[in-house]
What we know:
- The protein has 289 residues and is α/β, with parallel strands linked by helices.
- The chain has a single domain, classed as UDP-N-acetylmuramoyl-L-alanine:D-glutamate ligase, CATH 3.40.1190.
- The protein is built from eleven helices and nine strands.
- The protein has a nine-stranded mixed β-sheet, with helices on both faces.
- The protein starts with a helix and ends with a helix.
Amino acid sequence: MAIQKEIQKLLPRRKRETHKGDYGKIFILAGSRGMSGACVLAGMAALRSGAGLVTVGIPKSLALPLTKRFVELMTKPLPETKDGALSFGALKPIKTFLKTQNVFAVGPGLSRNPQTSRLIRKLVLASAKSMVIDADGLNAFQGETSLFCKLKTPAVLTPHPGEFIRLFHGASLRNEKERLQRARDIARKFKVILVLKGSKTVVASPQGNVYINITGNPGMATAGSGDVLLGVIAALLGQGLKPFDAACAGVYVHGLAGDIAVKKVGEVSLVAGDIVENLPRAFRKVLER
């Protein structure tokens, strides 16, 4: 398959003499009380996608339960609000920690708490790291999307259709042609990599390049699937891929993992954890052909 060969060329190979620091230090800001699974899905997806080190920045009350259960993930406990979301007091420790990281991924399960949204905007606008922004990371910019023009580096934005319409004030995305054109327009306008999720996910670059994904299935329309995608793309950025290449390869492999999973559990029963579980098979299928 021609597309699979192109994706294969993008994916990094591991050298024999190597160590974890060669494959990216990923910091994922995610989770809040009641939505702790989001940071786990994103973090484990990043590890399964080849990241060398993954740290999840989470409200401090979530740290101990996660550390006990998911031993491969490192955690950075952070100040929180009374309702268990990240507080604005987390700004300074996060800025300090980010200096040691290669990639900053933000959004899954953070909540729309005003303090958290303010924190997200400050961090995203100040960071020059490779970035992936999803879910509540995007929601923090609702009504202020002009701020994306001030980013120090081209970020990868990964909205689902509802988020896209809410953020960028478009009419409903009525057909494939309209989805493609709107994604390209927003990518150009804000100089970002735009991943418009859905059936045949569209990836658009500021230069007008567009990739339409061919993997994936309706079973992947389930909570947490987008968190997994964020982790995959972040891991590929950490391994040196350019943002547009990381987004295209990440979307392809994420969908392929879902296609492998659906053969085992069916569309009705597929959950996001099944996608994470089958990422190793997806990467092997692409790399070993």
